[in-house]
Structures are given as structure tokens and as C-alpha cells.
Design brief:
Radius of gyration: 20 Å
CATH class of the largest domain: Alpha Beta
Largest sheet: 7 strands, mixed
CATH topology of the largest domain: Quinone Oxidoreductase, Chain A, domain 1
Shape: globular
Number of domains: 2
Strand content: 25-35%
CATH superfamily of the largest domain: Medium-chain alcohol dehydrogenases, catalytic domain
Distance between the termini: 10 Å
């Protein structure tokens, strides 16, 4: 099969597009023909690697998969040709966290394309338990685009930050998949949304998704003060900050008393310095979140479909252009998801 893979950690130059053996499903796994796979920043981080990440090489990333069942190893109601989407969060053990529905907290929780071979290929093997029927009215690209980010966004906003109608949400950065979903999810839930953007184009697109205000952080370096101004001194009840080093200190200043700063990433770096006085005097909460449970996955997609929320797709490209598309993702040149077709 054709696949995009790497045989050692590193930058873009370690990626290869070529032939690998077709995977073979183990017991209770299905072989899926990939029809669409969306990119995430996770693809970049896994390729670069980190201490403690041990992969079998060559490794294939790609967490968001929509495709068709080819075969199933074991008894199953899934039959060849069925159109499916794949939950990227794979539960490999049952423990105290999974029994509470906190799958992504479990040490045995794995992500397709991270610890497990992913979908940047013509075929991928996944547990049958991770398959969900793809709605007939969706194209493969539209079905694949939101999977990881929608699950992540749902959990961070509603399960972790407990967003309520009437609250104000500040989304730090407009272009990424999680943040574009955060704008739409928060607006659909009855919140008022303020977004930071680095260009007029991204600002206009954020407003079209439902943001009430958009601040150009390049023209307004003290955007934290601008947030306070827009909220009449109150600040944002929930701050979505997946940038990290460059923004966290101002995110705390922009938060309302009793506010929650929720983070699922750190695109600018993971070492954060902030004024601790703001944390205790304003009684703020800094909340970490990662992916979500099987129920979070279902709830996120049903919320999208019931509110007619469409995933924001920046572009669709062939799998052979994956290296070029990952370079675009690293540069932050996209708005929304980049989807590849094998």
C-alpha cells in the first residue's frame, strides 16, 4: 500500500511517501480502506518525538479516518463495503478511569497515529469497537475532518471547563482545528465568543463562524487589556489557550474572576511563566484536557450534527502531497482542517 511514514524522529525531511506492506487485522480488528484522513498538530509532534515515546518503525501518523470496511477478523455485524468513521481514541485496558468514563485519563488509552499506526495510508487496522457508521449525507472528507478535534473540543469545553450558556469564551488563536470548533461549539451552546487572530482573513472567517469580537494580536499586543475592555472589565469566563509559552500570562489577565483557563496543547512551547497572584486573587482554575472518552466522541459528533455545525476544511489534497500539507500546517498557514485523500 502507499503510505506516508518515517523511520526515525525528526523534521519534515524524515517523512517518506512510498510502499509498505498492507496491515493485517488481529482478532476483533477491522481492515479499513482509508478514503479520507485529516491532519492534526499531533502528526507533527509524534514525528518529532519526545522522551518516553517508543514507536515501532516505520511509523504512520494520521488520527482522523473515514473509509470503508474491507474485512473483519472475528464475528461482527460489520460487513465489507460499509462506510465508517473511526474513533481516534483507542481503549486498550479496563481500569478505574475507563470504568468512570474517563477513558483519556487511563494509562492504557492510546491514539490512532500516535502510539498506534495511523491512517496516512491506503489501509489501516483498528479495533471493531472503535468503528461508527458514517452518516449517508456526509462526504468522506467532511466525515474525517472533525474527529480528533471535535472530541477534544467537546471534552475541554463541556466536561472539563463546564461551559454554561451566557458565559464569555476567549479563544486564543483562530486558525487551528480545535479552535475553529471551539468557536462554533461555544456559540451553539449560547456563549459569547471573543477570538484572537493574526490576520484580517482569519479574523473574518472567525466572525463568520460565530465570534462576536475578533482581536488582531499583531496590531494589539496587549490583547488581554482589550478583552477586559470588551467585557466591561469582567474578563472571559472560559479561556481556551492552546498556545502556551507566548500567551498564558496574558490569558490569566484576560480571565474573569472565578474563570477557567483550559488547555489541550502548547504550539508556542510548554514552559509557562505567569503572575501567581492572579491565580489566587481571582480564584482562577488552569485545567488540562486531552482527547476524550468513547461517549465524548459520540456526544461531540451528535452535537455537531444536531446543530448543523460543519467542520471547517481549509483544503483537500492527495496523500502524495502530505509533506507539503504538513509544512503548511507547521507554518500555521491554514484555517481549519487539511484533509488528504489516498
Amino acid at each position: 500500500m502507499k503510505a506516508v511514514f518515517f523511520e526515525q524522529h525528526g523534521e519534515l525531511e524524515v517523512l517518506k511517501y512510498g510502499d509498505l506492506p498492507n496491515p493485517e487485522p488481529r482478532r476483533d480488528e477491522a481492515l479499513i480502506r482509508v478514503r479520507a484522513v485529516a491532519l492534526n498538530h499531533l502528526d507533527i509532534w509524534v514525528r518529532r518525538g519526545w522522551k518516553g515515546l517508543r514507536l515501532t518503525m516505520p511509523h504512520i501518523t494520521g488520527s482522523d479516518v473515514a473509509g470503508e470496511v474491507v474485512s473483519v477478523n472475528g464475528p461482527s455485524s460489520w460487513t465489507p463495503g460499509m462506510k465508517v468513521i473511526v474513533s481516534p481514541g483507542i481503549v486498550t485496558v479496563e481500569d478505574e478511569w475507563t470504568r468512570r468514563g474517563e477513558d483519556s485519563v487511563s494509562p492504557g488509552y492510546k491514539i490512532l497515529g500516535e502510539q498506534l499506526p495511523g491512517g496516512l495510508a491506503e489501509y489501516v487496522c483498528v479495533p471493531v469497537a472503535s468503528l461508527y457508521r458514517m452518516p449517508d449525507n456526509l462526504a468522506f472528507e467532511e466525515a474525517a475532518a472533525p474527529l480528533l478535534v471535535a472530541t477534544t473540543c467537546w471534552r475541554m469545553l463541556f466536561r472539563r471547563a463546564h461551559l454554561m450558556p451566557g458565559e464569555t469564551v476567549l479563544v486564543v488563536g483562530a486558525g487551528g482545528g480545535v479552535n475553529s470548533h471551539a468557536i462554533q461549539f461555544a456559540r451553539a451552546a449560547g456563549a459569547e465568543v471573543i477570538v484572537l487572530a493574526g490576520s484580517r482573513d482569519k479574523a473574518e472567517r472567525a466572525l463568520s463562524l460565530g465570534a462576536k469580537y475578533c482581536i488582531d494580536y499583531k496590531e494589539t499586543p496587549r490583547w488581554d487589556l482589550e478583552v477586559l475592555k470588551l467585557t466591561r472589565g469582567r474578563g472571559a469566563n472560559v479561556v481556551v489557550d492552546n498556545v502556551g509559552t507566548a500567551t498564558m500570562a496574558k490569558s490569566l489577565r484576560a480571565a474573569a474572576r472565578g474563570g477557567r483557563i483550559v488547555t489541550v496543547g502548547n504550539t508556542s512551547g510548554y514552559e509557562v511563566i505567569y503572575d501567581n497572584r492572579l491565580l489566587f486573587t481571582k480564584q482562577l482554575s488552569i485545567i488540562g484536557s486531552t482527547m476524550g472518552s468513547r461517549q465524548d466522541f459520540i456526544d461531540a459528533l451528535e452535537f455537531m450534527w444536531s446543530h448543523n455545525i460543519k467542520p471547517v476544511i481549509d483544503r483537500v489534497a492527495p496523500l502524495k502531497d502530505a509533506v507539503k500539507m504538513l509544512a503548511l500546517l507547521e507554518e500555521g498557514g491554514q484555517f481549519g482542517k487539511i484533509v488528504l485523500r489516498p
